Amino acid sequence: MTTIYRSTRSNHINMTASQAILQGLSPDGGLFVLRNFPDHHINVADIVNLNYQEMAQTIFRLFLTDFSHDAIKECVQLAYEDKFTTKDITPLKQVGDDFVLELFHGPTNAFKDVALSILPHFMDHSLSIQNEAKKILILTATSGDTGKAALEGFKDNKAIDIMVFFPNEGVSSIQKLQMQTQVGNNLRVCGIDGNFDDAQTQIKQLFNNSEIIAEFDQVNIQLSSANSVNIGRLIPQIVYYFYAYSQLVNNQEIQVDESVDFIVPTGNFGNILAGFYAKKLGLPIRHLVCASNENKVLHDFLQTGIYDARRDFLMTTSPSMDILISSNLERLLFEVSGQDSDLINQWMDKLATHGYFSVDSDTLKEIQQTFRSGYATDEEVKQTIQSVYKEHDYLLDPHTAVAYKVMKEQEEFGYKQIVLATASPYKFTESVLDALNLSEDNATDDLFSRMSLLERETGVPVPDNLAELLELPILFNDCISTEEMSHYVLTHGKGD
Ligand SMILES: *Cc1c(COP(=O)(O)O)cnc(C)c1O
């Protein structure tokens, strides 16, 4: 079996695709990456006529080398046949002279659905390749959207249980309600009185804690991750970069081989890294623009080469991007440093112990060849939602608005710009109403009256699955301190 994956932090840990997907995180704390990336393996002219599902299969074959073509096809069908409300899966909309790639038409109305609709099928199939009798327990930290998308994807899975931890004060009321009302016989949801970074760090420590691993091993359970640290989360996200491009070609907006820019609202650096992988595979991308909210640690890094997380964690109106430790940057650093694990270890140790690290100027220059960056304040997000609605009759959610604002200040003539729209505006109804100045005069505490108000005012329909939340009972009300997480996992993770 070809072990095509290795750890970013050591040359000695090797895995097949199915092993890497089941493990989630490498035991040395690193992330799984391809040893030999299939650079320029895709000629765009060959694939612009494929539909979403066919394109997905073409791309997955390069990454899932121990899956049969039939297995890949089956995973794709199960994920994308009827779970999305558009046949296109990720439709491209024109807004003014620019383009918005809508990634939020899945079961939970955020872009995380694109990957988390298929990851459970990748995992099921990986279990059968590995002939594993073990049960998997997925531990997930969420800044709001991964949690619900993962719950929806894994609910009632026979071989896989899932536990989700979210920042109790750090998600929107709709996001919280979506998770707390989740039905399923294999899952658990818990708030923590910390932020996303606290949850992610705790979970990474659990994965590297040999006593805890052994304790679960005794009862035949293996821990895994549904966060974008899992390579199985990133691979599906590559597809829509190609698909957006093909829609531009097919609408005669660009010639095949013409370069475009993508602007990506960024938190854990997973989505934008998938764009980088698309470029490496051969998609003509000029710039990938990293758009940050006021937690602009990535913007500062991309400008200066200094990654400095020693700053206040801010709560913004784009909560899914409230992150200071962006895990997937490690995968980019691995590529641009020439797969230098020693350097990665130095940088990551420094970050873990001192809260910052800096890269040399050659590395920074290499990164800046492709990556641009900018950020938006909450006030700018508000203004952007308002002006785009007024001028173009298009409703942005706050995360997408961050990217839209950054696009407008970057715009250079002659290149098509595509903003990745990562969530439905209804997931953030309060902030969107506020941006449109509709919250004051129509004050009401009731979330659902507010969604209806937004629908009445804008004519954009409330997604069915959000409208239905009203009728669902709250099933999970636990809230614990960050320190209690490992105890909680041990207590509840073995099946009760
Ligand atoms: C997760 C998320 C992001 C950030 O994506 P990363 O892959 O973590 O960079 C942006 N917007 C929304 C709505 C999200 O849910």
TrEMBL record:
Keywords, ordered alphabetically: Lyase, Pyridoxal phosphate
Cofactor(s) of this protein: pyridoxal 5'-phosphate
Keyword NAD assigned: no
Documented EC number(s): 4.2.3.1
Domain Threonine synthase N-terminal: 5-80
Membership in a protein family: Belongs to the threonine synthase family.
UniProt name for this protein: Threonine synthase
Annotated source species: Candidatus Vagococcus giribetii
